[in-house]
Amino acid sequence: MKVLVVGSGAREHAIVVALGRDPDVAQIHAVPGNPGIAAQARCHELAEGIDDGAAVAALAGRLGVDLVVIGPEAPLVAGVADAVRAAGIACFGPSREAARLEGSKAFAKEVMAAADVPTARSHVCATLEEVMDGLDAFGPPYVVKDDGLAAGKGVVVTDNRAQALAHAAQCLERSVSPGESAPQVVIEEFLDGPEISLFCITDGQTVVPLAPAQDFKRLLDGDEGPNTGGMGAYSPLPWIPDGLARDVLTRIAEPTVREMAHRGTSFAGVLYVGLALTSRGLRVVEFNARFGDPETQVVLDRLRSPLGALLMAAATGTLEAVGEPGWHSHSSVTVVLAANGYPQGPRRGDAITGTEHVPAPAYVLHAGTRRDDGGDLLSHGGRVLTVVAPGDDLDEARERAYAALDVIELRGGQYRTDIALRAARGDVQVPAR
Ligand code: AMP
Ligand code: GLY
Predict the structure, then answer these.
(1) Final residue of a domain: which of 321, 340, 370?
(2) DSSP code of 53?
C-alpha cells in the first residue's frame, strides 16, 4: 500500500512512524511534511497549500497512492477529503459536511442533543445580551467558546464575568468571509473533573475506540497560563474506571455516528471525543474530526496492530472485518517543546540542537521545524517538536522523556515539567457522585 499523509505537525510525524511499522505499507509520502518526516517519507511541496482539495487530489493521483490520510482540521473543514474521494482515491478523514462536528460547536451541540449524548448544557448566542443571560443562568466559573475553529485557543474559562464578556464580544466582532455564517459564541455550564481524549475510528457505521490518553492544554505547570493546542500527553490512564472506553463507545461515539448517518452526512475517519469525568458522570467537552495532537503521539506509540490496515478499512467501509486494535502494555509520555512566545506570538528562526543525541528508546517527532540552506535545524512554529518516551510505567516514561529534553537546546524554548506527574503519583481522581 502507498500512503500520502497530509499535514506537517508532530501528529503527522507520529502517523508516518506508525505507518512505517506496518509491513503492508510500501511507500509513504507527505505533504508538506517537515524535516523529521522527511527522514521516513518523501515530502512534497504544494504551491496551492493543503487546504486546496483539487491540488491534494491531483498530487495523490500523480503519486499513485492507495490511501490519503488527512491530519489537521483545516483541510477537512475545507472539503479536501471530498475532493480526494471524488478522484477515486480512498481517503481517511470525514467529508466537509461531517467535519462540521468539529468546525461548529453549535452544530456539534445540535447533533449531541439529537443523539441523546451527555454534554455540558449550553446557550448558543449571537448577541451580547444573550451572552449576559447565558453567563448569569450558569454562574461562575464561566465557559465561553468561539463557535468556529480557533486551534484550541477559542475557549476562555474564568471566574471573572468582565473577562468572560470581553472574550464573547471579541468572538462576536470577528469578521466573517462571504458565505460564512454570522459569528456565534457558545456559553456552557462548567464541567468539574479530569478530562480525557478517546479517539474512535469509524467507517461511518462500525466504531472502534483506540487507547484513551490525557492531554495537558494549559501552557504552564499546574494547569496555569493560557490554553494551547496541547503541551503533553500520556497513555494509558491508570486512574480511569474499568469499562470507560466501552461506555464512551455505546453512549457517545456510536449514537453520534448513527445520528450523522441518519442526517445523510455519514462521518468516517476519527471521531475525537474530548470528555470530562464529572461528579455527574461522563460529559462530552468537545468533538474533533481528526486525531488529537499531542495525544496521537502516545496512542500510536502503544499501537501494536498495523495502522495502515486500520485507516484503509475506515476509509473503505470495511472496519467490521479488521477487529479490535492490539496494544503494547508499556506506558508512553510525550512532552511538547514550544517556541519562545507560544501561544500568543511564537518566535521563529531559533537554532535547535541535540535532537540526534536523544537517548533511545525516547525519540523526537518534529512539528514547527525547518532546515536552513546549510542543513541546520531551526524553529518554525509554535509547537516546535515533541519527545516521546515509552517506559514500563509512567515514572520511567517520564524520566526518559525529560532526559531527552535535557539534551535538546532551543533558545527561549518552553515545556511543562509536570506531564503525567499526578497520574504517576496516583493523584488523579474522578469526583465522587
Ligand atoms: P474545547 O476547545 O472545547 O476543547 O475547550 C478547550 C478546553 O477548555 C478544554 O479542554 C477544557 O479544559 C476547557 N473547557 C471547555 N469546556 C469546558 C467546560 N464546559 N467546563 C470546564 N472546562 C471546559
Ligand atoms: N490536543 C488537543 C487537540 O488536538 O485538539
Answers:
(1) 321
(2) H
Name the pLDDT band for 149 (thresholds 50, 70, 90).
low
Q: What pLDDT is recorded for position 153?
A: 58
Instruction: Check which CATH number belongs to the domain holding 270 and give it.
Output: 3.30.470.20
DSSP state of 250: I
Give the list of residues 6+ apart from residue 433 with CB closer than 8 angstroms, or none.
279, 280, 281
pLDDT of residue 310: 98
Indicate if the pLDDT at residue 352 is higher than 90: yes
The average pLDDT across 83-95 equals 98
Among 168-182, 340-354, 417-431, where is mean pLDDT lowest? 168-182
Which three three-digit cell numbers place residue 246? 466501552
Q: Answer yes or no: is the C-beta of 143 below 6 A from any ligand 1 atom.
A: yes
Degrees, nearest 5: CA angle 175-180-185: 65
Residue 182 phi, psi dihedral angles, 5° rounding: -60, 150
CB atoms within 10 A of CB 296: 32
pLDDT category of residue 147 using cuts at 50, 70 and 90: confident
Asked whether the bond before 212 is cis by omega within 30 degrees of 0, the reply is: no
Ligand 2 nearest atom to the CA of residue 11, by list position? 4
Whether residue 377 is contained in a domain is answered as: yes
Closest CA to 394 of 368, 363, 426, 370: 426
Residues 358 and 306 in one domain: no
State the Cα–Cα distance between residues 350 and 127, nearest whole angstrom: 43
Burial of 55 (0-12, 13-18, 19+ CB in 10 A): middle
CATH (domain of 376): 3.90.600.10
Please say if the pLDDT value at position 39 is more than 70. Answer: yes
Q: pLDDT digit string (tens) for 122-135?
A: 999 999 999 999 99
Give, using CA atoms, the residue closest to atom 8 of ligand 1: 155
pLDDT at 19 over 80: yes
Among protein residues, the one whose CA lies closest to atom 12 of ligand 1: 217
Alpha-carbon distance values, 396 to 234, 331, 349, 361 (Å): 12, 8, 33, 11
Cβ count near 320 (within 10 Å): 11
| Pocket probe mutation, ligand 1, options 285, 286, 293, max atoms within 8 Å of Cβ | 285
